[in-house]
From TrEMBL, chain B:
Molecular function GO terms recorded: flavin adenine dinucleotide binding; oxidoreductase activity, acting on the CH-CH group of donors
Gene3D superfamilies reported for this sequence: Acyl-CoA dehydrogenase/oxidase, N-terminal domain, Butyryl-CoA Dehydrogenase, subunit A, domain 2, Butyryl-CoA Dehydrogenase, subunit A, domain 3
Domain Acyl-CoA oxidase/dehydrogenase middle, chain residue ranges per copy: 120-213
GO cellular component terms listed in the entry, alphabetical order: plasma membrane
Name of this protein: Acyl-CoA dehydrogenase
Cofactor: FAD
Keywords linked to the UniProt accession: FAD, Flavoprotein, Oxidoreductase
Species classification: Bacteria, Bacillati, Actinomycetota, Actinomycetes, Kitasatosporales
Length: 290, 377
């Protein structure tokens, strides 16, 4: 049981593969270029993701998919979250096999989630009732948003994949904070030598690693309670992680130039998906008295 | 990523579950927390029962996976805790097993496993808490003995202990970490005085131990003279490893009872409380998975759970405090009544962020050893 919880060699290779792909196809310059051209979906990148199997990961091989499971999908989405990869990733992944072209990245699929739709205008196919959709001026420069009058119920798998993205952000934010704490000097020493800064960094790690255990376990079991728990832990790790990381960066953290705000804003968008934390907390509470 | 039991693990679990179903009811009710002789007898009795059934050494010899299954199933069956056996089974015993001579192992380990002797841990001193290496209790060599003078504090179970794993300073001139020695102190030796200390929960969980010219045979030294710091570090990694697994299972059971109580008294209709309970459920699910993850990673890297235990302890200690604060919320005015369930637990939970390394010290450990940040100041 527990001693085989860790990643298999294949899973490690998959994670490294996705990370390398994103470093190549979506380096930091591409991220910043995307910030400067909001709402534009990079179709070439989308097809590259499709070819790499990002969307078809869980589709059976007989249907032209990769034939892997939830754990592998979670690892891929963790990498996407880490890189702040833009686009309707979850909706397109979930549409693979059901919407022609989704699996291969030829089409981008948007879906109603709660009372919001991400990437409505850029998508080729939209799932759910979007009558009466109105655009919002999205807080996240990398996620165009519409609000719809007819909300849709949450799909547990979407919640899980979102949690994986949050985990990716949380881990990245810990790295950014620690890098900065090691190099930025004040009072003649790295700020990471100050205990107040060290403890912010330690808490970043504790939240991210606790979330990791919860997210991976939910990927293995697929249990709705485990998934709700994973989302609560991962949301907290990403949102609070972004704020602590911002604090460690000082004035630099408050700039448009630093990537911290991009993680914070995206973490807020993801935390609002699928009924938000309230729905997951109520789900778990209800299970306690069943 | 796999969370299922192997056939061997499943067989172990099934056999254990069947055995617990009969053994636990026979163990009798928990004694009153103020009844120390009763607690000692109860805890040792359960260890003896485990010994007779072949489970006594599960903490030492079984694989980490089997140990986790043992703790999980024991808790689910409502079995007694390690209690007074804690130091023997999880600190002193493993230290003697790892660092002791054959003769020392033969002398001290079997009585621990058979539930015959209680050990306590004499590390902390009035002026050496978080900064343990500042300890000053002095041991001077005299013939075949050490003569020990000084004092220990916060020594859990000292009132009923037979032995104490004692850290003493044997070389006051050496650098702090290099002048410390590990001794097994018989608690009935002349010159040992135990003064129980009352905790904020009202009972005497720990004590002050005064040592006045106590003669301890040199044969009771584990490891080399002045090598006690290294010997001790072997123990501490056990403490922060899987020691709390059973408690996480127990917390999840408390949470269910709390939800039931809230339903009965109407507090359940408050969405703020309901959501707090839901979030706690997420927290304890995650902590359970984190333990499994840590054990899995430690096994893959061929070692005992080390620094990762600090991550778990940081998160678990506050989760436990939150649990009982939420219990108070469910109880309303009953939270001020010591006779109500959970009220004493709420008081006890306050020690979790202090004992076995404070939360601040755990954060220092994470920052320095896991994140590689410069040594703090
Ligand atoms: C219930 C209970 C049972 C115990 N059982 C035992 C036992 O059986 N045997 C035994 O030997 N000991 C035992 N202890 C002692 C325990 O290990 C110490 O209490 C603990 O290590 C803290 O030491 P201290 O009490 O001296 O506090 P201090 O070290 O004085 O700490 C006081 C405060 O200062 C902070 N602080 C100290 N140093 C630093 C630093 N470097 N950076 C940041 N903050 C710092 C601490 O976090 C804390 O908030 C027990 C304690 C409790 C509460």
């Amino acid at each position: 049981m527990s001693v085989r919880f860790g990643l298999t060699d294949d899973q490690k290779a998959l994670r490294t593969g996705v990370r390398r792909l994103l470093e190549r196809r979506f380096p930091r310059e591409a991220l910043r270029a995307a910030v400067d051209a909001p709402g534009r979906l990079d179709r070439e990148l989308w097809r590259a993701l499709g070819e790499a199997g990002f969307f078809a990961l869980r589709l059976p091989e007989a249907e032209g998919g990769v034939g892997l499971g939830r754990p592998e999908a979670v690892l891929a989405f963790e990498e996407a979250g880490r890189a702040l990869l833009p686009g309707p990733l979850v909706a397109t992944h979930l549409a693979a096999g059901a919407v022609p072209g989704a699996a291969g990245g030829e089409v981008a699929v948007a879906a109603v989630d709660g009372e919001l739709v991400e990437w409505l205008e850029a998508a080729d196919v939209v799932r759910g009732d979007v009558r009466g959709a109105v655009p919002l001026r999205s807080v996240d420069p990398l996620t165009p948003l519409h609000r719809v009058p007819h909300p849709a119920a949450a799909d547990p798998l979407a919640v899980l994949l979102t949690a994986a993205e949050q985990l990716g952000s949380a881990v990245r934010l810990r790295e950014l904070a620690v890098q900065h704490a090691r190099t930025r000097q004040q009072f003649g020493r790295p700020i990471g030598a100050f205990q107040a800064v060290q403890h912010l960094c330690a808490d970043l790690l504790v939240r991210a690693e606790t979330a990791r255990a919860a997210v991976y376990a939910a990927a293995v079991t697929g249990d709705p309670g485990d998934i709700a728990a994973a989302r609560l832990l991962a949301d907290e790790a990403a949102v609070r992680g972004a704020r602590d990381c911002l604090q460690v960066h000082g004035g630099m953290g408050f700039t448009w130039e630093a990537d911290v705000h991009l993680h914070l804003k995206r973490a807020w968008v993801r935390a609002g998906r699928s009924g938000g934390v309230t729905e997951s907390e109520e789900l778990l509470a209800a299970a306690l008295v069943r | 990523m796999d969370l299922s039991d192997t056939p061997e693990e499943a067989a172990f679990r099934a056999r254990l579950r069947e055995w617990l179903a009969e053994a636990v009811p026979a163990a009798g009710p928990e004694p009153d927390p103020a009844d120390w002789p009763g607690r000692r007898a109860h805890d040792l009795g359960w260890q003896r029962t485990l010994y007779d059934a072949g489970y006594a050494d599960v903490h030492w010899d079984a694989s980490p996976a089997l140990r986790m299954i043992f703790l999980e199933e024991s808790e689910k069956a409502g079995a007694p805790y390690v209690g007074a056996n804690f130091v023997g089974l999880l600190h002193a015993g493993p230290t003697i097993a790892a660092e002791g001579t054959d003769a020392q192992r033969a002398r001290w380990l079997p009585p621990i496993l058979r539930g015959e002797q209680v050990w306590c841990q004499g590390f902390s001193e009035p002026d050496a808490g978080s900064d343990l290496a500042a300890l000053r209790t002095r041991a001077r060599r005299d013939g075949d003995d050490y003569v020990v003078t000084g004092g220990k504090i916060w020594t859990s179970h000292a009132e009923v202990a037979d032995w104490c794993e004692l850290l003493v300073r044997t070389d006051p001139d050496a650098p702090r970490h290099r002048g410390i020695t590990w001794l097994a102190l018989p608690m009935d030796a002349a010159g040992v005085t135990v003064r129980p200390l009352r905790t904020l929960a009202g009972s005497t969980e720990f004590a002050e131990v005064f040592l006045d010219e106590v003669r301890v045979p040199a044969a009771n030294r584990v490891g080399a003279e002045n090598d006690g710091w290294r010997v001790t570090m072997v123990t501490l990694s056990f403490e922060r490893g899987t020691a709390f697994v059973g408690e996480v299972v127990a917390c999840r059971r408390v949470l269910r009872r709390l939800a039931g109580a809230a339903r009965e008294n109407g507090r359940w209709d408050d969405p703020v409380l309901r959501r707090a309970l839901g979030r706690l459920d997420a927290e304890f699910r995650a902590l359970w998975r984190l333990t499994q993850w840590n054990v899995s990673e430690a096994t893959a890297n061929g070692g005992v759970p080390g620094v990762a235990g600090s991550v778990f302890k940081l998160r678990y200690s506050t989760a436990r405090q939150d649990l009982y604060d939420t219990a108070a919320d469910v109880l309303g005015a009953g939270a001020l009544d010591l006779d109500r369930p959970w009220v004493l637990d709420r008081l006890s939970s306050l020690s979790y962020t202090i004992a076995a390394g404070t939360s601040q010290i755990q954060r220092n450990i994470v920052a320095e050893r896991m994140l590689g940040l410069p040594k703090g100041r």
